[in-house]
Amino acid sequence: MNDMNIDSVDLNLLKVLQALHEEGTAGRAAIRLGVTQSAVSAALGRLRALYGDPLFERTGRGLRPTPKAEELRPLIAEALQKLRQSLALAQPGGASLAGRTVVLGLSDDHEMALGRRLIDRLQQAAPGLRLVLRQTHSGLAADMLMDRRIDLSLGAGTGSSRTLARQVLGTGHYACVMDLAQAPAGPLGLEDYLRRPHLLISSGGFVGVVDEALAAQGLSRRIEASTSHFAALPHLLRGSTALATLPEHAARALAALGTLVCLPCPIELPRYSIELAWRSSSLRDPALQCLKTHLMDVANGLYAPA
Question: Average pLDDT of 111-138?
């Protein structure tokens, strides 16, 4: 890195670096920042000279950050957040959220269950605030929060960390979905449940919580395929006698589309906590506070009480 100090650095370059990280191309970063693509390219040249690193490499799909750029990402994000917090302190009436981006990490079961209502709520309460819904799960959420790839996570937990704050919204439990035309006339019984082929929704492996519960009773099921996407179920179950066991909030959301039916699961499965998590250092960020407040409102009643 060149011999420079903060007095000689144009801090607007930090906004360009963040935009390039999040948008992936100079053209999209330019649109986001309201400048020309040549201005972004020129800023990137200055950033490369400043940090003594290419920062981004061209690929067939845009710009890929170098290891140095990935190292800088959370530091730049934190610096810009501190600047925004200082502006919020200078505006007792509240800083405008127009143009701000907040990233909510969640799996697609939660996205299906509350995503539309959250979008509608933010459009009314904070027009101009940019909401990004980014796929994650409990095994990734903590790292994504600490790396500032997401600002808030919603899911089944993020593990323990002193730097993350949490709030439990409720508990989750399970239900079954199947093709409406293949559904039983009455309740789904255990014999019918075990007779049918199953689709497993899993981020890895071919054994799920259902298999563990069945094994404890000396029972088993036949899994015909595994998928990592809840949203694929209406297509994967169409015209089949198969069923899927999934969180009830997702089962209800899928059944509301009209092609699947939601039925109680005939076996007892463990409940799990559903919580929000965020970086403790970002608690005073008005954009995060806005997202958190309205997310809690739309989630009210969606999950079982804790």
Answer: 93
- Name the nearest CA neighbour of 157 among 141, 179, 135: 141
Per residue in 160-207, pLDDT (tens digit) is: 677 899 999 999 999 999 999 999 999 999 999 999 999 999 877 889
Backbone angles phi, psi at 38, to 5 degrees: -65, -35
Cα 1 to Cα 52, 54, 189, 194, 228, distances in angstroms: 5, 12, 68, 64, 43
C-alpha–C-alpha distance, residues 74 and 81, integer Å: 10
Residue 101 pLDDT > 50 = yes
Residue pair 203/228 in contact by the 8 Å Cβ criterion: yes
Check pLDDT > 60 for residue 95. Answer: no
Structure tokens at 211: 């298999």
Enter the pTM of the model: 0.77
Distance CA 138, CA 156 (A): 6
Chain centroid to CA 277: how far?
11
Q: Which long-range contacts (CB under 8 A, 24 or more apart) does 93-97 make?
A: 94/286, 95/286, 96/128, 97/126, 97/128, 97/129, 97/286, 97/287, 97/290
Q: In the numeric block, which tokens belong to residue 148?
A: 């500032």
91 pLDDT band, cuts 50/70/90, is low
Confidence band for 88, pLDDT divided at 50, 70 and 90: low
C-alpha neighbours within 13 Å on the C-beta side of residue 290: 24
The average pLDDT across 68-88 equals 80
Cα distances from 225 to residues 31, 192, 200, 242, in angstroms, run 42, 19, 6, 10
CB distance 52 to 104 below 8 Å: no
Nearest 5°: CA angle at 185, between 181 and 190? 100
Strand duo 164-172 + 272-279: pairing:
antiparallel
